[in-house]
Amino acid sequence: MNDVVTPMLSIQSILTEWGKGRSIGKAPNGFPSQSAHDRMRRIPGRGTVSACGLAEESFDIVDRVVSELRGKQDCRHPVLALYYVEGMNLKAVGGAVRTKDGRPIGKHKARDCLIAGESWVAGKLDDMGVVFVR
Fold this sequence. Notes:
The protein is mainly alpha-helical. Helices cover 53% and strands 0% of the residues. The chain has one domain (11-128). The model has no long low-confidence stretch (mean pLDDT 83).
């Protein structure tokens, strides 16, 4: 029997594509705006142009799941956002994310939070029955 096995995407690949999609339409100066590409891809009747490797529906699911972390009082959401959306390395993330007393969490804690956030998102997607394939 010739079964075709379709490889599943890793959570890191999924979050990398999510980060690309989140950074589209984000102004470099921090002001809320939309890029011309982002505005154009949302015009009815023109179809959608995917700037990231996830379909729009898949992107929305991942975005909702990651956004759930925002309400939790820990470092997972800011670390995921800085690492995957902003493209910061772990040392920079560790310097940017602060503890409750205002000290930077550091590179090693940032790595722990990144792994915990990736695992939480993967588990949540798994609980929802969502599978991403290449």
